[in-house]
Amino acid sequence: MNRFNYFMPTKMVYGQGVVKEAGAAFALGQKPLIVTGQSSARLSGALDDVLSVLSGEYAIFDQVENNPSVETVKQGGALARREGCDYVVAIGGGSPLDAAKVMAVLAVNDLDPLELYQTGWQRQALPIVAIPTTAGTGSEVTQYAVLTIEEEETKKGLRGSDLFPQVAYLDPKYTESLPLAITYDTAVDALSHLVESYLAKRATPASDFVALQGLALWGTTIPALREGVLDLETRDALLLASSLGGIAIAQTGTTLVHALGYSLTYYHGMPHGRANGVCMAAYLDYTKTVAPERVETILELLDLDSVASFGELMDTLFASQIEEVELTPETLAAYVEKAMLTNNIKNSLGDPGAEVLTQILTTSIG
Ligand SMILES: [Fe+2]
Known about the structure:
- With 366 residues, the chain is α/β, with parallel strands linked by helices.
- It has two domains: 11-174, Rossmann fold; 179-365, Dehydroquinate synthase-like - alpha domain (Dehydroquinate synthase-like, alpha domain, Up-down Bundle), CATH 1.20.1090.
- It has 17 helices and eight strands.
- The protein has a six-stranded parallel β-sheet with strand order 1-8-5-4-2-3, with helices on one face.
- A hairpin with a 4-residue loop joins strand 6 and strand 7.
- Helix 7 runs antiparallel to helix 8 and helix 12 packs antiparallel against helix 14 (307-318).
- The mean pLDDT is 96.
- The site of fe (ii) ion (FE2) has 5 residues, from helix 7.
């Protein structure tokens, strides 16, 4: 009999209009710190909905950039302290959601963000409400927050059970205003979570159940993604698939794809999902040699006949956006070395070494 844990303490409230329907029950305390990026919280209508259900005071930090920095979370944490906030409302894509989680920690722990990686934190983070406006990150149902660490020239994840939001409001309408390129980038991030979770060493029967359901759902959106015309039903499927991806990686973690993708994002500015998407076909080709049935199942659920078709799908989605990335042998070796330091490699099937990673990166970028 398998032995495993399954932990997902976030209350998910899913459907159109759920924030407004929550009404007074939306507030988890007296005064929230609302954390957003620079546009999607407003454009999507999510911020207006939140403000309409809040009756008292609030503070707002609306300057979270893509791939949030240590400085940003420091400022947000200080604002929460100064304003006496007692919970956090995170609205946006992965960047605002992840930044908000760390601000919720810093609001009650007088630490430098970098110390969180070294020593952890003592006091429980403020309670978090998460409202995604993209369908990709899954952060609304995970215990992870990823920051950009300039000192180490990479993105790095923090984890803590208090980083699971207390409530996630999932309204597909909020993703309707997303431009197509961001829709693709984030959708492929969700896909990479589902694929990597199913191919993780730490996969369990419960995480597989979630990942497989998510992959089947993601698969139904492929014709619309190819066409570039996304109705609300497709947005709905993508948002749910993305949350299922989050639930799955909350149990299993991610694998080498995320580890390699971080360098493409940090050094080449490639959006996170796209960076993963670029590496995924070569990853599947490699994993086929160590777990052929698992890769076959993924392809079947996506209704793709081969890994090559998977690669073509990625090429189609990113056709005009993949800027040329040229890597010298030295740069490539440096990215591989950086990836080898992560736990993601130990979590990848087949115990890949530097040679395998080099092969995957060369094939992906070449
Ligand atoms: Fe991701």
